[in-house]
Amino acid sequence: MPLDQSFVGRSWPPTAPYLVGREKIREFATAIGATDAEYHDPEAARAIGYADVVAPPTFPVVITMTASRQIVADPELGLDYSRVVHGDQRFAYARPVVAGDSLICVNTVEEISSRGGHDFLTTRTDVTTEAGEAVVSVWSKLVQRGEE
Amino acid sequence: MAETLPTQTFTVTRTDLIRYCGASGDFNTIHWSERIANSVGLPGVIAHGMYTMALAGRAVSVWAGAPDAVVEFGVRFSRPVPVPDTDEGTEVVVTGVVKEVTDDGLTKLELTATCNGQKVLSLARATIRKR
């Protein structure tokens, strides 16, 4: 069944704050093999103007993947997650994520389309601090493969 | 103008995928179970798309010479990265070309990521601000 087009433009209430831990950033950086001192050492991060260690560019997905369950798990949208593959991913940064940030996500459905029997869902997640400072906007395009 | 950036090669093993599962919270079974991966028509366990993108991000940060230089970063996942259950794993090779330097000091890069000679990312672009 195609995805419900009426979801285009819909936004959800802000998610509960995610407190970014220094050890979580270190763990993520280690997992991707990123050894830059600013990802691991608060002193090195302070030397380039940040309050604590900074996160690698794709770290925000740790937060937005959980936040986007608001959308993908909405039964009215009609997404069958077992047929979903990740199509595109994009980040636009106001600044890097920094340990100690308390971050909130607002999810919006930007586009729904169908082509060649597949359905495409583009979501945008705006990540801000609790105080409302913009940090990063994250776009994901999910592809729901056609049923066999 | 079309400056080519030094090629960067990353080794990816099953251990790396398991570690990324834990660090990212993405425990999708196709990234650690051969049985499940085969059952959904994949050749075997594949890397998380976001892991491949993270490796491309490492390359960008190295080229930029700063961990916080990236202002925009986008990719399309065009082909999976199969990771065999061997000590050697597989390799993802990332290359980049400078496409444009804007008047306001931004550098636009076009990236290519390949595994076994095949493109695994397409429309891979990053914009960086050099210090």
Q: Which tags fit this structure?
A:
heterodimer; A: 148 residues; five-stranded antiparallel sheet; 5 helices; 22% helix; elongated; B: 131 residues; alpha+beta; Thiol Ester Dehydrase, Chain A; 5 strands
Walk me through the topology.
The complex is a heterodimer of chains A (148) and B (131).
Chain A: E1 18-19, H1 22-31, H2 37-40, H3 42-47, H4 60-67, H5 69-72, E2 84-93, E3 102-115, E4 118-129, E5 134-144
Antiparallel strand pairs in A: 1-3, 2-5, 3-4, 4-5
Chain B: E1 4-12, H1 14-24, H2 34-39, H3 49-64, E2 70-77, E3 90-101, E4 106-115, E5 118-129
Antiparallel strand pairs in B: 1-3, 2-5, 3-4, 4-5
Outline the structure in words:
The complex is a heterodimer of chains A (148) and B (131). Chain A has 148 residues and is of the alpha+beta class. Chain A has a single domain, classed as Roll (Thiol Ester Dehydrase, Chain A). Chain A has 5 helices and 5 strands. In chain A, strands 1-3-4-5-2 form a 5-stranded antiparallel beta sheet, with helices on one face. The model of chain A has no long low-confidence stretch (mean pLDDT 94). Chain B has 131 residues and is α+β, with helices and mostly antiparallel strands. Chain B has a domain at 4-12 and 48-129: Thiol Ester Dehydrase, Chain A. Chain B has helices at residues 14-24, 34-39, 49-64, and strands at residues 4-12, 70-77, 90-101, 106-115, 118-129. A 5-stranded antiparallel beta sheet of chain B has the order 1-3-4-5-2. The longest helix of chain B is centred in the middle third of the chain and has 16 residues, at 49-64. Chain B is elongated, with a radius of gyration of 16 Å. The two termini of chain B are 19 Å apart. The interface between A and B is medium-sized, with 33 and 31 residues. Strand 2 (84-93) of chain A pairs antiparallel with strand 2 (70-77) of chain B.
